Automatic annotation (TrEMBL):
Domain FZ: 22-140
Lineage of the organism: Eukaryota, Metazoa, Chordata, Craniata, Vertebrata
Family: Belongs to the secreted frizzled-related protein (sFRP) family.
UniProt GO MF annotations: Wnt-protein binding
Name of protein: Uncharacterized protein
Ranges for domain NTR: 160-284
Predominant place of localization: secreted
Organism: Denticeps clupeoides
PANTHER family, sorted: FRIZZLED, SECRETED FRIZZLED-RELATED PROTEIN 2
Length: 284
């Protein structure tokens, strides 16, 4: 549950913007185990970094891992570049900080995800502390002229949906009728920390009622929902072996999905199997 350590580690290590641009620094290779900032376009970083961390083993590498759960949500396309410019600043003749505009863009997209996990945007990343000039800092990339992803359902923050075991046939069919989509998916949760996301949707998602969902996007959509609603996912999905679920949900007015029920499909539960067969001919 590294996501919940983000604020505490930042608060302890950087209660204020303590880095002095006039202090002496040294260049070191970005360590292989610092996978969060691997393949960012350069191989050497400055120490101390912009968060005041001076020890690779004791501070930089372990605290960089605290950001992995947030980055895996895909909350902003430049979130990794922004965070790595602070955690592992590029080693050039001059200091390159992120621009204020980049900080604001990442904050506006990613702060709601942190809020969903019970945290505020860290004070150490106050955007007013970054330079406003766009010529000597890391700026935002131009947006593409068209963005088809805006028309797709998106994962959003919500309260925990109900988890039902051994539901009645009527409850299942009523839930199928009242929701915009019904899918069968195999959800898994890793027991040990890994470079890969803690939660995963394995294999193909099978549609019982497709509604507005798209076949090529739904697996990724459900996985991102689990990673954004991390606290909820911990209560819903057990660690260890993958488990099959029926998930029902609706599309909100803002285009986000809201899951309403998770039905754990157990081998001895015949009602789920009957409901999925009857649904094709059932009149709501």
């Amino acid at each position: 549950m590294a996501a919940f350590l983000i604020l505490s580690t930042l608060a302890a290590s950087a209660p204020c913007w303590a880095f002095d641009l006039g202090q002496s620094t040294r260049c070191v290779s970005i360590p292989h185990q610092m996978s969060v900032c691997k393949d960012v376009g350069y191989t050497e970083m400055r120490l101390p970094n912009f968060l005041g961390h001076s020890s690779l083993e004791a501070e930089v590498v372990p605290r960089s891992e605290d950001w992995r759960p947030l980055l895996q949500t895909g909350c902003h396309p430049q979130a990794r570049s922004f965070l790595c410019s602070l955690i592992a600043p590029v080693c050039l003749d001059t200091f390159i900080q992120p621009c204020r505009s980049l900080c604001v863009a990442v904050r506006d997209s990613c702060a709601p995800v942190l809020a969903c996990q019970g945290h505020a945007w860290p004070e150490a990343l106050d955007c007013d502390r970054f330079p406003a000039q766009e010529d000597m800092c890391l700026t935002t990339l131009p947006k593409p002229s068209t963005d088809f992803s805006k028309d797709l359902p998106q994962p959003g923050c919500q309260g925990c949906p109900a988890m039902e075991e051994f539901p009645s046939l009527k409850m299942l069919l009523d839930s199928f009728c009242l929701n915009d989509f019904v899918v069968k998916a195999k959800l898994s949760r890793r027991r040990l920390p890994s470079d890969k996301p803690e939660f995963e949707v394995e294999g193909h998602v099978e549609f019982i009622h497709q509604g507005p969902l798209l076949p090529y996007d739904t697996q990724h959509l459900l996985q991102q929902w689990l990673l954004i609603n991390l606290r909820c996912a911990h209560t819903l999905v057990r660690p260890g072996r993958a488990q099959l679920y029926i998930l029902t949900g609706s599309i909100q007015s803002d285009g986000t999905i809201a899951l309403t029920h998770l039905f754990r499909w157990l081998k001895k539960d015949v009602n789920i199997a009957v409901a999925t067969r009857k649904w094709k001919h059932y009149k709501c």
